[in-house]
Amino acid sequence: MSSENLEAATAVSTSDWLGKALGLIASAMLLSMMALTFFDVIGRYLLNAPIPGAFEITEILMASLIFAGLPLVTRSGEHVSVSLFINRLPPRALRIQNVVTALVMASVLVVMTWRVWVKATEMAEYGDETAYLFIPLAPVGYFSALLIGISAVLAVAQAVRVIRHP
């Protein structure tokens, strides 16, 4: 196997592993939210005893789910886009457009990573926590920043892939 093929196979296996891991995490969060909501509704309406703090837990799981899904969407190139003129571009211009778009997206994601990390650090310093269950919020912020950073790396990888493979 040539070094290029080995490098490509390693990148694919790493990408597959990352996609499966993030998919599993997102699925577990979604399943947890569904189960929590189900039992909270049953408790609220049948037993007159809702789950204490269910709303706070749902908020944390929702934020985590959204950021866990971001690398998956970035990896598969499924971001929302408007393609008004794409069909009219020649192949070379389309490649340039794809590279520029991926690099702009990576730049925005890097700035978002930085700002969310700074906010998570502030939350840690101030000891921010939820109002009812007193769950610390900084770990959610750091988790979100980490996943945004992974998305930025994946966006750069997309640009490199387009450059290397016309």
How would you characterize the overall build of this protein?
The chain is an all-alpha fold. Helices cover 78% and strands 0% of the residues. The protein is built from 4 helices and no strands. It has helices at 3-45, 54-76, 91-126, 138-164. The protein is elongated, with a radius of gyration of 20 Å.
Keyword list:
single chain; 4 helices; disordered N terminus; 78% helix; mainly alpha; 0% strand; 166 residues
SSE blueprint and pairings:
Blueprint: H1 3-45, H2 54-76, H3 91-126, H4 138-164
Helix pairs in contact: 1-2, 2-4, 3-4
Principal-axes shape call = elongated
The rounded Rg comes to: 20 Å
Order of helices and strands: HHHH
Beta-strand percentage range: under 5%
Structural class category: mainly alpha
Q: In this structure, how is the largest beta sheet organized? A: none
Mean pLDDT: 86
Measured between the Cα atoms of the first and last residue, the distance is: 22 Å
Q: What percentage of residues falls in helices of 4 or more residues?
A: over 70%
Poorly predicted regions are: 1-10
Overall strand count: 0
Output the number of helix runs.
4
